[in-house]
Structures
1.
Amino acid sequence: MRFARRLGAVPSAIVLLAAVAAAFAPALFSSADPLRGDLTKRLLPPGDGHLLGTDELGRDVLSRVVHGSAPSLQAAVIAVGIAVVVGSAIGLVAGNARGRLDDLVMRAVEVLLAVPSFLLVLVVVAVLGPGTREVAVAVGVSAAAVFSRIMRAEVIRVRGSGYVEAAAVCGTGRPTVLLTHVLPNAAGPLAALATLELGNAVLTVAAVSFLGFGAPPPTPEWGSLIAAGRPFLASAWWLTTVPGLVIVTVVLAVNHLGHVLRTRSERR
Amino acid sequence: MTRFVARRLTQAAAVVLAAYTLTFAAFNVLPADPVRIMMGPENGVDKARVAALRAEYGLDRPAVERYLDGLLGALRGDLGTSFQTGRNVGATIAEAAPRTLALAGGALLVALPLGFLIAWSAAYTRQLWLRRLLGALPGLSLSVPTFWLGLVLLQAFSFGLPLFPARGEDGLAGLVLPAVTLAVPSSAFVAQVLLERLTAEMRQPYVDTARAKGASRARAVTAHALRNAAMPALTMIALLVGWLVSGSVVVETVFARNGLGRLIESAVTTRDLPMLQGLVVVATAVVTLLTLVVDVAYPLVDPRLRERAA
């Protein structure tokens, strides 16, 4: 345990870097074609030639998982991006406005939080239709409420501090104060929350894709890979086990980094 | 107290009304159009077919009229008619609810004791490695996709060792694997919240006082710290229930159980908007009502709050 702590965030960072590298340059990890299979080599167990076996169409599982990194991570990153931008904009405005506008906005946020989050994601998916980008928007919108709360709390905390008052007294305009003084000071907790939310987003995106609302079939996504392996649960374990373990590893790494970030921002 | 309850009830009603309005807006206000959503973006738009669908479901009426009609119906307990099956939405939900209740109940039956046990042991032990291990456990299980966990359990205990049926439809044996699947993240959730509170309480001077007066460590944790820590953890119940609803979607899909989660999944697949709207309203009402009950019960359980309220 102490050893693990001394290593700190290094192993998690390596895992995350590898996942990102797989998204940008899948050829680094696997030279096989993720879409073209060899029907004479169907459902081969992990071994020579195909390190992690082949699926029911003879496609290389390692290659499909590696190529699945791009759509899966992309969706999660876009989702968190949307959540951070939309959420903090709402929080910034509400925290700054006070009074009735603040009340109204925070009530609306409360409503969004009262709907079970995955149900909210699926409602947006039903409106937008299936697809990687649509899923990303759905997950982002449903996560935005949490960010607006944190942002609002930070704005209210920072608003009373001396330097904000000083800036206001110096005649700095309110938008400038918000952007140059309030926003940077709220960045720490937001970054920590964003990292933790990224792990959640990877899981939610995978779940939506597992249900069949992600990218259409030949595209390998981690969630849909697991769904495709379901009929072969009893005969070809590697089809579901490999992408599942990949998701767990990536989410663990992201959450660990988020935890480190949070501990640091709390210590400050 | 009565005024407090009345005010909270009004607020809860407003939240449910807002959830209804938001889903209606999402499905009906520009650029969304129910017929377009139902036909899907991938299909070419056949004007005659669109018009026929519109007339069939009464969607040719103005949105405001449909909204008010739907709202009046909902107030009378009529949530409308499913596009897909033509059956009453409320009746369909009521029919599926018991299976999800059994699943959620089974999951809680495992998750609550397990979560308490993990948090209690982590607070009790003086072995640093064990405390760290137990403290890391919730984060670890929350990093596992629930649907995949279900598949792994199926693989191990249904196909590997034929202990349980692969389809969790009826009977107690079929309930075990889905309930355990849902219980793992739920217990992690409970343990996480409770452990955080418990760790804070253990640093309080009253724990030292209790120990100094001769209480064993186990008693100090159970009778003193846990009592104080469990109360704030109570407020998480509504969140937990919302979580169970979310989790039931994938768990019921994996184990082919026809409950609310399955209903949600199929409503999204077939773009059955009245059904989906009904499900959102019911789920939100349940979560909001639970929050209300906890809020009202809280001062009754915690004497400190009672004094402040009086």
2.
Amino acid sequence: MAKRIEASNVSSYYGSFKAIDNVSMTVEPKSITALIGPSGCGKSTFLRSINRMHEVLPGTRIEGRLTIDDQNIYDPDVDVTAVRRMIGMVFQRPNPFPTMSIYENVIAGLKLNGVKKKSLLDDAAEQSLRSANLWEEVKDRLGRPGAGLSGGQQQRLCIARTIAVEPQVVLMDEPCSALDPISTLAIEDLMFKLKDRFTIIIVTHNMQQAARVSDKTGFFSIDKTGDPGRLIEYDDTQKIFSNPAQKKTEDYITGRFG
Amino acid sequence: MSILDRELPGVVMTPDNIRTRRLPPAVNVGVALAALVVSAAVVLGTGVGNWVLVVVVAVVLYLVGMNVTASRIEGRRAARNRMWQALIYSACVLAVLPLASVVWTLLSEGVGRLDGDFFGTSMNNIGARDPNGGAYHAIVGTLEQVGIATLMAVPLGVLGAIYLVEYGRGRFALTVRFFVDVMTGIPSIVAGLFVLAFWVLIVSPWFNDGQPRFSGFAASLALTVLMLPTIVRSTEEMLRLVPGPLREGAYALGVPQWKTILRIVLPTALPGIVTGIMLSVARAAGETAPVLLVAGGAAAINFDPFAGNQSSLALFVYQQAGDASKYAPARAWTAALTLVTIVLVLTIAAKLLARRNSLSR
């Protein structure tokens, strides 16, 4: 069951530095939303705020409301591990656990959260690897280390690991920036496939990718270094890339910025 | 003409000529032999030194000779490269030489008493004229003291390091880290004195009808004090090397922090942590002063680490090396060999264990 995400007036801070200012957007369930914008504009910070990964770094804090199906995930009585179980995340660089095999990597989330039954774990591993389009490539070497796969395979392994815990939302932080075009294509195909089950939000620097995969696009920008990032425009991808309402958005997507 | 060509001729080769002449390996050997012969002739001929000086002078002559020949044929840059290469190799040999010498001396002197008697008996009732006598009591002492110290220091040290890396924020963590750094430099005799004043003289009388009591456990306490800072520091360094994205990857799966540390961070850093622990174990096993101060040393076998004097291998070596008996030095050498062997075996075993847990590529 995918869920609706609603951000209202979210501001994130690193110490006294305000990284994003007053971001409000609604993400519909079972859709792909792309966040684009120049480096340092706060799109990754916003993404990390959605599953409370922002607060892992010391001295960070958040203002505003972020609700998943009308539950504010920043309420004081919310269990942060439950939030992260509900909202999975794929990172820029593939980060398989180096001490674990491919099989152990996929079921790490289940096993570390207490699932013990071997048959359940085996099923989940196969299901997740199939969903991540990786099963055929690794089914004969599940016991080999996950770090021995190629970069693209590692990233799909990380996606398999993320969807194995069956989250409602999958966040992707530039998941293809370290990958070659073929692996990128494989992951984009995968995103279309996962759209049926999950709400996906992806941060990307690749505008063609945003245009290809997403239903809606949010454009973040900053005025100058040191200013907080703002959500300039958020609309259907079609509209953003053909007829954006804001001059800044048009400048960015046509390459005339700065 | 590029700037490099103009300012440093000979450094870059021109696009037309990227080849250079190379000295044949025979020249290398020839120069070395010539250096050796000249050096031997000069040194032994004038009678100023023995073969050690011959080797030293030959190395210097070889370096100079190679530099001259190479700069004639291969050019200045290649000659400098050859000289530094030779210097680095000789530095390496010089560094390994004492080590090899130690191992060789230990082996050649230590085999003398490698017999059943040495490992089966103690020094109880062994007089100055008795050629037998053994280190059984000392081996028992070392194993018990270092074992107990390791059991106390490893959990404390590793947990302390986890606190410093994963949880420690603010003034308290800074203070802890500062004192760990200070403790790293504590001389072992000070640790021994601390345990003598605190444990042997104040605490142990409570359990012994008001009389202070030496014990192997007191030595373990002193060794723990010595091991702790090493373990905390090395473990801390290893935990910091674990990439942040790995932790975040686990958090993103909804894994709680303590489980992330236990199942992801620690296993990743395990080989390094084990190396640090074994270094501190090796240091503790070689300590003499604290054992002498708080366990007192003993000639007889004492299996109970909590009551009565105990010896240890390091202390045994110290006592036998200073003993007047003509049979004592052989015992000291064999005990030293035993000590090194025990530490070596423990280190290898620990490394194998740590490696078996992680996957092989």
